[in-house]
Write a structure and sequence with these properties.
alpha/beta; three-stranded parallel beta sheet; binds zinc ion
């Protein structure tokens, strides 16, 4: 069978008909003259196209968060309800990008999965090749321990701009059938961090395939900034016909990542120069480094307080963009966790930071993780 699929063709499709669900407070800001009846109507369906008309699409320098704005907080926001950190280690593998599917599998993917001792997001079905290669004893490990979550579950993290819906559906069906047959698993969350633009067709298919939640990333910075200001980066994505239905069966919970990328510099908080210091794969002497020229430091008893507070400041700033007390912080990049030493260097350093948080309840931050190796479970 030939699958007509292309991962991440760079296209612009921002002016698509997309419906998002926003809150009354946001709508009042957007439409100050609307009477309550209008607001109620608007509440049930807001076209993203309407938002485009509001945006100047200028590009002012936002400071540390170049395409955003300065984020402030008082410091007592978490006194009543602590900030809950949900850290998600992930590795983004591009099947068939610069190497062939098999080439990536041999050089990187199988090593990543072999080394999988901690929870890891896995979105592409090159997992199935590895599954066929390993023995039963290994098979019992990651799923049994609940350390691996299979997200989306298609053949690839599909391009959503150019692909025909038939191809999107076909690759999703094949992936889900494989998962059901071999693992008895149906994914509940979507993970689309690298497709260039997002499509309501894909959203519709994901919901139809049983998914309840989805994460998206590559959205125009002006839209991200606008949603961040309104704290609407988490919303129910509704199909255009959803407003006329009695119950909105097609709604799906969507989290839009706020910053420029899905790498560590752009996921801990708004300042990439700071967040990069918490990507311990970039410690001096390793293969990658921080382009902001401030390298990470290994966490020690001497620096743990200063480092933990620096990181907490980024987490707190990022949390100001959301209404939820739970903060999603992805920790990964392209082809990460290939070598065992990378697992170790990330885990041991983060463990020291998180131990510090735990020993200091006055900081009001709880990290969702389990002792003995796995971080995060939602
Ligand atoms: Zn990619």
């Amino acid at each position: 069978m030939v699958l007509i699929l292309q991962d991440e063709i760079k296209t612009q499709q921002y002016r698509q008909h997309t419906t998002v669900f926003l809150t009354v407070e946001t709508l009042k800001l957007l439409f100050p003259d609307a009477n309550s009846r209008n607001v109620k109507y608007r509440l049930s369906a807001l076209q993203l196209l309407d938002v485009y008309d509001l945006l100047p699409f200028d590009n002012p320098d936002g400071g540390a968060w170049k395409q955003g704005f300065e984020i402030g907080y008082r410091g007592d926001e978490w006194d009543e309800q602590p900030l809950e950190l949900f850290l998600v280690p992930h590795s983004h593998n591009d099947p068939g990008w610069l190497k062939t599917f098999d080439g990536y599998y041999q050089d990187q993917t199988r090593h990543i999965l072999d080394n999988m001792l901690q929870k890891l997001k896995w979105a592409e079905i090159n997992f199935s090749k590895w599954w066929n290669d390993i023995d039963d004893q290994k098979r019992a490990t990651p799923g049994g321990a609940g350390q691996l979550e299979l997200v989306t579950g298609g053949w690839v993290m599909a391009d959503e701009a150019n692909s025909h819906y038939f191809a999107l559906l076909d690759q999703l069906m094949e992936g889900h059938q494989w998962l059901h047959r071999h693992l008895g698993v149906t994914p509940s969350s979507g993970w689309a961090i690298d497709p260039f633009g997002h499509s309501p067709s894909m959203t519709y298919l994901l919901k139809g395939a049983g998914l309840q939640n989805m994460v998206i990333q590559r959205v125009h910075y002006a839209v991200k900034k606008h949603f961040a200001r309104q704290q609407t980066l988490e919303f129910l994505w509704r199909q255009t016909w959803g407003e006329t239905e009695k119950n909105n069966n097609h709604d799906i919970t969507c989290h839009m990542m706020p910053f420029y990328s899905y790498d560590v510099p752009h996921t801990c908080g708004p300042n990439p120069a700071v967040c990069c210091q918490f990507d311990f794969h970039r410690l001096p002497g390793r293969r990658v480094f921080c382009p902001w020229r401030v390298p990470p430091q290994p966490i020690t008893d001497q620096n743990v307080q200063e480092r933990a507070l620096l990181l907490l400041d980024q987490y707190r700033q990022k949390s100001q963009l959301f209404r939820s007390p739970v903060l999603l912080v992805p920790l990964g990049d392209d082809f990460r966790f290939v070598e065992t030493s990378e697992w170790d260097v990330q885990f041991t350093n983060y463990q020291k930071l998180f131990d510090y948080f735990e020993q200091h309840p006055e900081l009001h931050i709880k990290v969702r993780h389990r002792r003995g190796g796995a971080w995060g479970r939602a």
